């Protein structure tokens, strides 16, 4: 593809396209940047600090190379440094003309008298300058290219040249690179970071949307600019699961006019065919039907630096730039739909036969022939792939219950898709019909993996029970525990899935230690598939355990990791993405970051009817949204959120969710001072029945205790501490001792206020100290600040009356509560807070499967030599792993590593 030509970056990386052939009077100065630049301090620093006389910025057009050079030129010019600029054009393929331009730009205006033809000498650059050469990719003539190589490498030692091009090519430049004279800043370094992408996209995008768009653009500055200019098209891409959405029209024009227009028809047709595969090997290309594309053509395109790259060091796999590949596929679908369909079928079959199940499904779901697609998805294990690392298998044409014996894995995959989409009644009916037809999944096609199929059927039945919020029985717990034991070591995805469900059950029962243990078992089972849908929910549950019994900081670590996995595996507005978004928002709420929390909650809650979930997820989301709305806008706004939660409860037939919404309504009525309405709510169903219930069931107590606390709060606000104490006395203390820290904190505050009102001062002081200690340890900022005046009042009373209080209590009250006005976030209070808890960890705290295995053995007391023998690796390798473990966990010793790994529930 030597004939391929593309416009240089100009300022297009963040501004606009530069001319192919710059006007003579503009050749010797940087192009004018029309739009504001996005600061890129990391790359700018790399350019400034790069060693070597020549620095080459090498990347595809539109990657911001010219912009970066122009920025560096401006910095040096402002400092008074001698800077010189030359923009190359296709005219410079004439060596004599190129020599004159180089001489004028970098050696003064004296005419060039030497021979610059083949083998001739290049002009000489002046000493002590910094030269900028933009557009090296435009020089295709070998003599001209050799001339500019000689010019750059022969520059005086005190001069420096910064050059842009699509890639490094030429013998002399490669030789200079090997000798340290040339520094290459390649395409990977030129990609925008997620923060830079967010800045370029502008306001109106969530952090995760900006990150996803940056993935689609692959850090390509021009692509992100197109998204910023055409936000509606960009948003369609975010919610596109079947590649039906078109890229922005300006981006398509750019690819057509700048990239495709420079190709001959045969090359363009070949690349359009190959784009259907998206990623490919020489073997895949050789197997393509009808005039396959030779690998040499791909290799040449890669060497031209134009939107195809190798994926591995062995150069076996290559892939298109995500946006460019999509553009080529859309061209093929538009111009030759039959060929597109033929190649989609080929791709699905090729990836299936070569063991790439997830990719086989991704291609199969877009094939028009649903019978063919169904067979592909069944063959690769549909639901297994979906739960592991593959796409949803919601094939447009559903497999009926009558086909469940012939296509069991696809049927179960589609059933899971319906559950994920919140269509629980439909899913339950389909599962029961399939059980009848297949005699409980025993009448299956020959060769079917009966153990796995029956296991997945049992799993989906348990998922439905949890989703329908059915009562938790001992038989149900025993069934889950038995299933987990059966699948460990043989069926890792099933084991991880059952562990996730069992953990959810333990959380409902406030059995947090057991929940943490089962999470660890599930994640260990999934070591090979750590980036999976199942792992997302295990991380979520780890976050719930941390929030309930440890610290907000620790919960944030787990939920943010779950969010990261959800964006990788779920995409768009999936079950995983929305669930993690609600949970992260709840942590923002607890950290008193109310505006951030509401911005995350509102769009997620609006889509709750389109996904599956669990009662406590819904309850916390709608209750917290109502609390924020009530604080910011008043009771009517809070009521709107509560009605939305009640509507979902009725739609899904979830009585406990109705109870949680009633509790939240009582809280909001009390906050608003609507005493009569609050009393009416408390004395009417469902609250009246809940408050009067007599039960030792943790599932019932988990709803009743919050209701009793809100009833006590209302009585205290009404000046009736005796009645408040009556409600508090009804709380099951054995359950409370093991309950979520948020319930324990609220109980301590209500008990303190009631005791103070009843003049039981010793009890009030005891409750105050317990509440402050909980706030210090857990980081419940919102709750601490919301009750700060009452805590300060009790603390001051204690001091005035000569009570001795621990120094930690006084420090927290004086340094945190007394200085606050109630609007501070956790971050704002962090410096002042003497609270103890898990220290902030590095962002890379997640250990690899091997590192997890090693820290577990270290915790069991094995020494380095024993670990090496047990794992079949060298002692040096073990030591290397242990060093990395210490770095990731931010510790300095073996004992600290064990403690930190246990804190993070890694072991």
From TrEMBL:
Keywords attached to this entry: DNA-binding, Transcription, Transcription regulation
Gene3D superfamilies for the chain: Tetratricopeptide repeat domain, Winged helix-like DNA-binding domain superfamily/Winged helix DNA-binding domain
Top-rank taxon, per record: Bacteria
Keyword Hydrolase among record annotations: no
Residue ranges of domain HTH luxR-type in the record: 840-905
PANTHER family: DNA-BINDING TRANSCRIPTIONAL ACTIVATOR DEVR_DOSR
UniProt protein name: LuxR C-terminal-related transcriptional regulator
């Amino acid at each position: 593809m030597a004939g391929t030509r593309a416009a240089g970056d100009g300022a297009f990386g963040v501004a606009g396209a530069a001319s192919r052939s710059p006007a003579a009077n503009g050749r010797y100065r940087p192009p004018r940047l029309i739009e504001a630049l996005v600061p890129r301090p990391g790359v700018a620093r790399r350019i400034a600090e790069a060693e070597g006389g020549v620095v080459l910025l090498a990347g595809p057009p539109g990657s911001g190379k010219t912009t970066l050079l122009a920025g560096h030129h401006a910095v040096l010019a402002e400092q008074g440094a001698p800077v010189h600029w030359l923009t190359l054009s296709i005219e410079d393929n004439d060596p004599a003309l190129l020599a004159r331009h180089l001489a004028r730009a970098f050696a003064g205006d004296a005419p060039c008298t030497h021979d610059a033809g083949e083998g001739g000498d290049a002009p000489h650059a002046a000493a002590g300058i910094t030269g900028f050469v933009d557009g090296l990719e435009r020089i295709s003539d070998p003599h001209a290219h050799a001339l500019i190589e000689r010019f750059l490498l022969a520059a005086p030692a005190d001069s420096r040249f910064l050059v842009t091009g699509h890639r490094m090519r030429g013998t002399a430049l490669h030789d200079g690179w090997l000798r340290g004279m040339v520094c290459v800043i390649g395409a990977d370094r030129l990609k925008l970071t997620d923060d830079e992408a967010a800045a370029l996209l502008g306001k109106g995008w969530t952090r995760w949307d900006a990150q996803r768009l940056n993935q689609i653009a692959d850090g390509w500055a021009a692509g992100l600019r197109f998204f910023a200019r055409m936000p509606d098209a960009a948003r369609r891409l975010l919610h596109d699961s079947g590649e039906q959405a078109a890229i922005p029209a300006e981006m398509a024009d750019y690819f057509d006019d700048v990239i495709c227009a420079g190709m001959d028809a045969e090359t363009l047709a070949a690349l359009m065919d190959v784009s259907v595969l998206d990623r490919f090997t020489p073997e895949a290309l050789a197997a393509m039907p009808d005039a396959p594309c030779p690998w040499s053509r791909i290799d040449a395109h890669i060497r031209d630096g134009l939107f195809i790259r190798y994926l591995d060091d062995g150069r076996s796999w290559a892939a298109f730039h995500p946006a460019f590949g999509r553009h080529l596929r859309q061209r093929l679908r538009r111009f030759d739909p039959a060929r597109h369909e033929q190649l989609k079928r080929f791709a699905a079959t090729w990836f299936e036969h070569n063991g790439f199940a997830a990719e086989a499904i991704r291609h199969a779901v877009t094939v028009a022939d649903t019978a063919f697609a169904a067979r592909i998805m069944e063959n690769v294990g549909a639901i297994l792939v979906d739960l592991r690392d593959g796409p949803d298998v919601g094939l447009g044409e559903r497999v009926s219950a009558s086909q469940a014996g012939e296509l069991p894995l696809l049927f179960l995959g589609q059933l899971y898709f319906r559950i994920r989409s919140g269509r629980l009644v439909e899913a339950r009916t389909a599962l029961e019909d399939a059980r009848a037809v297949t005699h409980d999944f025993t009448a299956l096609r020959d060769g079917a993996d009966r153990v796995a199929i029956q296991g997945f059927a049992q799993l989906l039945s348990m998922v439905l029970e949890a989703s329908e919020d059915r009562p938790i029985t001992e038989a149900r717990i025993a069934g889950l525990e038995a299933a987990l034991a059966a699948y460990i070591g043989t069926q890792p995805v099933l084991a991880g899935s059952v562990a996730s469900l069992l953990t959810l059950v333990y959380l409902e029962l406030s059995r947090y230690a057991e929940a943490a243990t089962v999470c660890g078992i599930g994640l260990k089972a999934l070591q090979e598939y750590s980036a999976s849908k199942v792992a997302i929910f295990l991380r979520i549950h780890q976050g719930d355990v941390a929030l309930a019994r440890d610290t907000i900081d620790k919960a944030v670590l787990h939920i943010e990791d779950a969010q990261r996995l959800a964006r990788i595996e779920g995409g768009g507005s999936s079950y995983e993405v929305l669930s993690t978004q609600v949970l992260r928002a709840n942590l923002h709420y607890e950290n008193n970051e109310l505006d951030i929390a509401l911005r995350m909650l509102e769009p997620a809650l609006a889509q709750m009817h389109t996904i599956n979930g669990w009662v406590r997820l819904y309850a916390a989301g709608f209750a917290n949204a109502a609390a924020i709305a009530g604080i910011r806008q008043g009771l009517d706004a809070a009521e709107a959120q509560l009605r939305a939660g009640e509507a979902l409860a009725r739609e899904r037939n979830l009585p406990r969710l109705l109870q949680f919404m009633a509790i939240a309504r009582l809280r909001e009525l009390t906050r608003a001072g609507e005493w009569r309405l609050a009393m009416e709510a408390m004395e009417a169903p469902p609250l009246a029945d809940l408050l009067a219930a007599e039960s030792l069931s943790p599932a019932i107590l988990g709803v009743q205790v919050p209701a009793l606390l809100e009833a006590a709060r209302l009585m205290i606000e009404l000046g009736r501490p005796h009645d408040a104490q009556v409600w508090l006395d009804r709380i099951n203390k054995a359950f409370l001792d093991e309950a979520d820290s948020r319930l324990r904190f609220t109980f301590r505050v209500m008990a303190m206020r009631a005791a103070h009102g009843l003049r039981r001062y010793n009890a009030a002081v005891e409750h105050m100290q317990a509440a402050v200690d909980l706030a210090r340890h857990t980081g419940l900022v919102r709750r601490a600040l919301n009750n700060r005046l009452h805590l300060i009042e009790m603390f001051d009373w204690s001091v005035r009356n000569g009570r001795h209080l621990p120094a930690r209590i006084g420090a927290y009250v004086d340094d945190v509560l007394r200085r606050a006005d109630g609007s501070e976030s956790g971050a704002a209070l962090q410096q002042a807070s003497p609270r103890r808890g898990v220290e902030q960890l590095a962002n890379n705290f997640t250990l690899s499967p091997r590192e997890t295995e090693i820290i577990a053995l270290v915790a069991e007391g094995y020494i380095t030599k024993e670990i090496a023998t047990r794992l079949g690796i060298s002692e040096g390798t073990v030591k290397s792993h242990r060093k990395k473990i210490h770095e990731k966990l931010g510790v300095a010793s073996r004992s600290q590593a064990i403690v930190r790994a246990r804190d993070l529930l890694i072991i």
